[in-house]
Amino acid sequence: MIQEFKEFIAKGNVMDMAVGIIIGAAFTAIVSSLVADLINPIISLFLGGIDFSGLYILLGSGDYPSIAAAEAAGAAVFAYGRFIMAVINFLIVAWVVFLLVKAVNRAKGVVIPEAPAAEPGPSELDVLMEIRDSLKR
After folding, report:
1. What's 123's DSSP letter?
2. For 42-86, how does the pLDDT look when each residue is reduced to its tens digit (9 = 90+)?
3. CATH 2.40.30.10 fits 2-114, yes or no
4. How far apart are CA 42 and CA 34, in angstroms?
5. Model confidence over 110-124: pLDDT tens digits?
6. Looking at residue 112, what is its pLDDT?
7. Contact present, 84 and 55 (Cβ < 8 Å)
8. With contact defined as beta carbons under 8 Å apart, do 96 and 31 qualify?
9. Which of 33, 97, 119, 129 is the least crowded, having the fewest Cβ atoms under 10 Å away?
């Protein structure tokens, strides 16, 4: 069983997946920084400086100046602004990943030219006709 496990781990697909996960984890930090530090401030600028992450509805009694103060006091809050920001962040991250994959695929096409199409072999009908003719002889 140990030998089977070693063979399984040594297969290219498992190693490729492990490398992909490691690179993906490192890449997540880069994309998160891109979204949080560069793109979100631009969106905020166009929306008049509104930071959606601070929008909330207090589900209990009291008056708190911010969502952080309400949470620190233990008040129940409906933090819909954080959800809006999570959706916006997801859409931006998905767009950035799409652009990167598109660029990588384009680079692969330049580096590795597609092999010319092989000449098609005989059709099924041609093969059957050859067999028929051979049987007639």
Report:
1. -
2. 877 887 777 777 888 888 888 888 888 888 888 888 989 889 888
3. no
4. 11
5. 766 666 677 778 888
6. 60
7. yes
8. yes
9. 119
Number of residues assigned to the chain: 137
Cα separation, 114 vs 7, whole angstroms: 32
Distance, in Å, from the CA atom of 47 to the CA atom of 74, rounded to the nearest integer, reads 31
Please state the domain extents for the chain: 2-114
pLDDT greater than 80 at residue 39: no
The 10 Å Cβ neighbour count of residue 82 is 16
Burial class of residue 35 (count of CB atoms within 10 Å of its CB; 0-12, 13-18, 19+): buried
Q: Which string of DSSP letters, residue by residue, matches 20-87?
A: HHHHHHHHHHHHHHIIIIIIHHHHHHHTTS--GGG--EESSS---SSHHHHHHTT--EE-HHHHHHHH
pTM comes to: 0.53
